Structures are given as structure tokens and as C-alpha cells.
Amino acid sequence: MTDRFRAHITRELxxxxxxxxxxxxxxxxxxxxxxxxxxxAPLLNLCANNYLGLADHxxxxxxxxxxxxxxxxxxxxxRFICGTATLHEELEARLARYLGMEDSILFAACFDAxxxxxxxLFGPEDAIISDALNHASLIDGIRLCxxxxxxxxxxxxxxxxxxxxxxxxARFRIIVTDGVFSMDGTIANxxxxxxxxxxxxxxxxxDDCHATGFMGPKGAGTHVHCGAEVTLxxxxxxxxLGGAMGGYVAGPAPLIQMLRQRARPYLFSNALPPAVVAASxxxxxxxxxxxxxxxQLFENAAYWRAGLTKLGFTLLPGEHPIIxxxxxxxxxxxxxxxxxxELGVYVSGFFFxxxxxxxxxxxxxMNAALTREDLDAGLAAFARAGxxxxxxxxxxxxxxx
Length: 401
Hints:
Elements: H1 3-18, E1 28-29, E2 35-38, E3 41-45, H2 58-71, H3 79-83, H4 86-99, E4 103-107, H5 110-116, E5 127-131, H6 136-143, E6 148-152, H7 157-166, E7 173-178, E8 180-181, E9 186-187, H8 190-199, E10 203-207, H9 222-226, E11 232-236, E12 247-251, H10 253-262, H11 264-267, H12 274-288, H13 291-311, E13 322-328, H14 330-342, E14 345-346, E15 349-350, E16 360-365, H15 372-388
Parallel strand pairs: 3-14, 5-6, 5-7, 7-10, 10-11
Antiparallel strand pairs: 1-2, 2-3, 4-12, 8-9, 11-12, 13-16, 15-16
């Protein structure tokens, strides 16, 4: 690295720091869970994607350990050379059945799934109509494809229809949306999206990372939650399904076969380790039988939302376990997260470029492992930090009783 380039990067980092946008990582000790340890301090964890509390489940650890004993540590190859194990095929078939699709294909992460799904299927004659708030991985995957790009305002069905009309001359059209928008907890209007898709002869792709495992009957996702039939689903094994790693695309068998032939992140990445695959299979067992976990998750979400509202915080409306506390500016979100950390609550501030400028927030996330005692402790900490920072008035009500 040249001195001039080093100086340039240093100035950029200094600017990020000065604007209050610097992201910092705090390593946790021990397993992911409702309570974690950071630097020797015990903390209530309200910011993990561990929706069903399975990340430290002993059955998943046992399945992973057994798989390493029988199948080794890693595959040391990509799938089409000598990296496919019977476990991979079993998980792909199981995911397809669970999601109500013909077939599925595994990737190292959903970022890779979204990065690899478009280019093999669509060309310059085609059109991709994408929600403006779609995840960065969908945006990057669409950029890698040569199809025409159209964007519609988030969950704005009138604008979606206008973009579909604008794309009428394309050979093929596909509407792309997050099933749940990760920064807001808003659920996509899949009934209307799929209706418009039928009307304008378009396909649909839904990124269901923040829904698989807990939204809809048996947690199969936003499409079953909304009663909508979609063409393709992408998702992750790294959130509700155990929290490790891995992603997938599920859909019609010919499309999945084409991805096996042409999806670059699939063709040029090592196969998922056997331990991850075996634990994911066990996670699916727990999830399919997990109505009690889902009920607890949504009970916690309702209690937490009611408690924050009573305290006087500004929330985005919704039913999802993602419950953002809106604070406006990045420095305030940073201060709030830091004060909560001192009070024993682990949350993260989100700000530009992750969310638009002026919409900084603390994104809280519920999970089924949180107890009522945990939630009351969290509400007390939010009340204290919020009052100290002038976010809520001193006269606000207390925690929900």
C-alpha cells in the first residue's frame, strides 16, 4: 500500500468516525443466546437473529458433532467436483418439502444465493422489478445481471404496477422483494404482489431470511403467512434455523437445475461443512414441531412492543419480532446503544448507509428464549437510558405489568 493511499483511507475512516457512523464489534464469549457475555460482563441480548432461540440448542450441537465424527470437518471441494455429500442432497430435498417448492439448492450464505440467482436466469431482453428497500445482496445480485432494472417504492402497489407496465416489452419479468424488510420489520404485500404478477405475466422472487422458521404455518415463510404462491424463495440457515451459516434458493426444478449449472457462487465456493448441514436438518425437525416456540416468540414481541410504546418511544408499526426504536440521528443511536450496554442490554444502532439518513434507530429483535423477567429488565434499561438522553419524557409510564 502506498503512503498516499494509506492517507486517503485514513481520512475516510476519520470522516466516518466524525460523523458518528463508525461501526464497532464487541466479541461475545460463549454461545449465542438470550443472555451473553461480552468482556466478562453478562448482557441481555436483544439484537440477534436467533428468533426461535435455537442457536445454542444442545440437539443441534450434538447433530453437528456426530456429523464431524462420521463425515469429517469440511468437504474441501465445490459441489460439482467432489464436494457433494448425501447430507447436502438430503437437506436440499427437505428444504424444498418444508417450503412447498419442487427443489432447492444450497449456497454458502444467502448473500451468495441472492448474488447468484439472477445472472443465470435472465438476460438483456428481460426485466427485474425490485423493491426500493430490498436487501443489499439482492441489489448486488441484480447489478451482476444484464437484465433491465426497474425499481418501485417500498410496498407501493401502484408504483409496482407502473413499473410492470413500463417493463411490458421485456421477454420475461420478475418482481423481487424482501418477504420481511429487515430494518423495519414490515411484511411485503405478497397477496397484491402476486396478483399483479399474474396480471402482467411476471414471476416473483422473495428473500425470506427474516421469516423462515417462524412466519406462517410451521414457520414456512411469508408466502404461507400471506397465502401467496411465489416462483422463487431465497433464504438462510443462519437466523431462525440454528443461526450458523448457509443459504438457499428454492423453486421450480428446472430453475434450480439451471442454477446448479451456471450460478457462480455455487460453482466456485466450497460446499457447506457436514456439521452445518446435519445441524440444519435437526433444526428443521425442531422448527416443524415448534408451534410452542413460535407462540412464545410472538407473545414476547407483543409484550415488548406494548412496553416500549407505554414508555413513549417511537416505534414502526407491525407484527414482526423486529421492533425498531426510531431515534433519527446516528450519534443519538450510538449513544443510546452505548448507554444500554452499560446498563446490561446488548443492542446495536443502525444508521446510514444501512438505513436512510435521518432514520437512525435501535433495532430490537425478540426471540423465543427471552423470559418475562428478561423483557422487564430490558424495558427498565430502555426507560432509564431514554430518559437520560432526553428521548422520552420523565413522566412516561413504566414497564408493562
